[in-house]
Amino acid sequence: MADRYRSREGLSTRSAAYGGNSDEVQVRIDPDFDDEVVGLRKQVRRLRDVAQEIETEAKSQNDFLNQLQMTLIKAQAGVKNNMRRLNKSIIWEGSSHVMHVVLFALCLFFFIYLWSKFSRR
Fold this sequence. Notes:
Blueprint: E1 12-14, E2 26-28, H1 32-120
Antiparallel strand pairs: 1-2
C-alpha cells in the first residue's frame, strides 16, 4: 500500500510512527529538490524577462508599422493629387505641346536640308 504513494526518486513513504497499520503517510523530500526548485525559479524569471522584452519589442515594431502605414497613405494621396493635376494640364495644354514638337521636327528637317544643300557646293 505504501508503494502506491511513491512518485519518484527522493520521495518515499513510510508507515506512521504509531503503529504500522495507519493510513497516514509521511513524505521525505530529498534536499536536492530544493536546489532544483531554486534553479527552476531562476529559469522561470529569465523566461518571464525574455517574454516581457519580446512584448516591448513587438509593441515598438507595431507602432513603427503604424507610422509607416500612415506615411504611405499620405504619400499615396500626394501622388494621386499630382497625377490628377498632371492629367488636367495635359488635357488643357496637351494639343499645343504636340504642335510644338511637330513644328520643331519640321524646322529641324528644313535646316538639315538647307545645310546639306549648301555644304555640297
